[in-house]
Specification:
Blueprint: H1 2-48, E1 62-63, H2 65-74, E2 79-83, H3 87-91, E3 94-95, E4 99-100, H4 104-116, E5 124-128, H5 135-150, E6 163-166, H6 169-174, E7 183-184, H7 197-223
Parallel strand pairs: 1-6, 2-4, 2-5, 5-6
Antiparallel strand pairs: 3-7
Length: 231
């Protein structure tokens, strides 16, 4: 009789002991499946999307203007194009559906919006500036860093595994005859256009101020508030 009662108690307690293990196992299996799918997406895209090799910014995957034009034809709804140029450049002509995001603050807001959105996420995110030599690469790296931070407990999983830099930037895209049709308005304003000298100064000043604020915030987070001694 005692054995039967003890057996009954053990059976009733067994879910309490097995549940955490089962949950942990289920979580690990789910995580592993996500990582495998993530890597499979990267493998499939690297096999199907031709990449451009450059010595500059070798850590970033580049695609050509012709490849972007093909993607705009075949899967425009799956793309998110980030134009990192200043507003006066963007207004003078930009790639169809491109979003003008040129500050770190704006990019952080976009990342949060994409992560929390109930609609489907873009499968490919493409960055560029005028020549994709400085502003585009900088925001591209920041976006990847934000993704890494968001998925820090799920490494190497990424919410947006497929991000690219447009080789040659808007300048190259606009000057390809087969790509011009994807520019609206159909124009090209250089960052150093003479009549926008004042706007350029303002944007550069604002950028410097914003960067100083970010640097100050990081220092405060690392070292705590600055203490002033009164003598």
């Amino acid at each position: 009789m005692a054995v039967a009662i003890m057996s009954h108690h053990l059976n009733s307690l067994s879910p309490l002991f097995s549940s955490p293990i089962m949950h942990s196992k289920s979580h690990m299996e789910s995580r592993n499946t996500s990582v495998v799918k993530n890597l499979q997406i990267l493998f499939d895209e690297q096999s199907s999307i031709p990449l451009v090799k450059r010595t500059a910014h070798p850590d970033l995957k580049r695609i050509s203007s012709q490849t972007l034009a093909t993607l705009l034809d075949e899967q425009p709804d799956n793309l998110c194009i980030i134009d990192a140029r200043y507003p006066f450049e963007y207004s003078g002509g930009h790639i169809t559906s491109a979003q003008n995001i040129y500050t770190e603050h704006e990019l952080r807001l976009l990342f949060t919006k994409l992560i929390t959105s109930s609609s489907s996420r873009p499968s490919k995110i493409i960055f560029h500036c005028e020549f994709s030599s400085e502003r585009g690469p900088r925001l591209c790296r920041l976006f990847r860093s934000l993704d890494r931070q968001y998925n820090i407990s799920n490494y190497p999983y990424l919410s947006f595994p497929s991000i690219y830099l447009l080789d040659g930037g808007y300048s190259d895209f606009f000057n390809h005859s087969s790509c011009k049709q994807y520019c609206q308005p159909n124009g090209y304003v250089s960052m150093f256009e003479q009549k926008y000298t004042q706007e350029l100064k303002i944007h550069r000043h604002d950028k410097k101020v914003a960067n100083n604020k970010i640097l100050t915030k990081k220092l405060v987070e690392q070292q705590g508030p600055i203490q002033f001694c009164m003598s």
